[in-house]
Amino acid sequence: AAERQATALRLQAEAMRANIDPAIAGKTLSLHDRLVTRLGRKTFDAWFGSLEIRQCDGARLVVSVIDRFVKNWIEQNFTVELAECAAAEFPGVTRVEIELRKPPRVA
């Protein structure tokens, strides 16, 4: 529970910095839950732990990760699972795009 709350706060802060709609960003945890249920905790932690929702514009959902290797691995191995979980969370989404994002600056 504490880990989930910490993740929610981190996602909220990142959304504010990146000027992302908080309602969209808030669904990141729901998408995470769907992926954990579908893939298992170990697989989720290994490949989807840094995944954040950036934008949703109808049929297209844009998510981001902080590592090119992770991005490529997800695209090569988990495209169907990610798309199905995204469509369940965002009715109407038919395509998921994965972007790289810069890691947050450490002050």
User: What is the number of helices?
Assistant: 6
> Helix and strand succession?
HHHHEEHHE
E-strand count: 3
β-sheet strand percentage: 15-25%
Rg, Å, rounded: 13 Å
> How do the strands of the widest beta sheet line up side by side?
1-2-3
Catalogue the unreliable spans.
Answer: none
Which secondary-structure class do the elements indicate?
alpha+beta
The major sheet is characterized as: 3 strands, mixed
Gap from first CA to last CA:
27 Å
Helix content: 55-70%
What is the typical, i.e. mean, pLDDT? 85
Which shape, going by the Cα principal axes?
globular
What does this protein look like?
This protein is an alpha+beta fold and 107 residues long. The chain has 6 helices and 3 strands, in the order H-H-H-H-E-E-H-H-E. A 3-stranded mixed sheet has the order 1-2-3. The longest helix is centred in the N-terminal third of the chain and has 16 residues, at 2-17. The N and C termini lie far apart (27 Å). The model has no long low-confidence stretch (mean pLDDT 85).
